[in-house]
Write a structure and sequence with these properties.
The protein is mostly helical. It has a domain of 43 residues: LysM domain (Membrane-bound Lytic Murein Transglycosylase D, Chain A), CATH 3.10.350. The protein contains four helices and two strands. The protein has a two-stranded antiparallel ribbon with strand order 1-2. The chain is rod-shaped.
């Protein structure tokens, strides 16, 4: 027995299904349609192609130039800090072995060196060689008392 609500209900469902299928098919057709590929501007084309490529080339070059300048500035600043500034003292001496104004000869000063051994400090070397720490530092201006290494030579007179 057929109730009044079921009459024609099958046909209505069928038409809804048909419409859904048709929509699905339309969507598939839209997706599979051949799309036109985008073309990049060619620098050789007329019509301002070079203007389109200009920023693409100049921007990385400007960045590279700025980075290079920055690196050079930092490098020169770091090198400048490494250079120790030692005061220079102007002294006038007569060369050893040359006659002075009175005709006397001054004896040539003999340089003496000491080879650093394990455990040596400038203070202990000064005590062994009957000199002062200040004299050792004056004779060896480029030496760092905290970084003495065995085998290193220092001047003691």
């Amino acid at each position: 027995m057929v109730t009044p609500g079921e009459e024609g209900g099958g046909e209505e469902r069928e038409s809804r299904r048909e419409r859904r299928r048709a929509k699905r098919d339309d969507r598939r057709d839209e997706k599979t349609e051949e799309k036109i590929p985008r073309r990049r501007p060619d620098p050789d084309d007329e019509g301002g192609g070079l203007a389109a490529w200009g920023p693409r080339i100049l921007a990385p070059l400007a960045f590279f130039l700025a980075a290079t300048i920055l690196i050079l500035l930092i490098s020169s600043a770091l090198d400048h800090k490494k250079t120790p500034s030692t005061p220079t003292v102007a002294t006038t001496t007569t060369p050893a072995g040359n006659p002075t104004s009175t005709g006397d000869f001054t004896p040539k000063a003999k340089r003496k060196f000491y080879v650093i051994k394990e455990g040596d400090t400038l203070e202990s070397i000064a005590a062994k060689k009957n000199t002062t720490l200040d004299d050792l530092l004056t004779l060896n201006p480029g030496i760092d008392p905290t970084t003495l290494t065995p085998g290193q030579k220092i001047r003691i007179s």
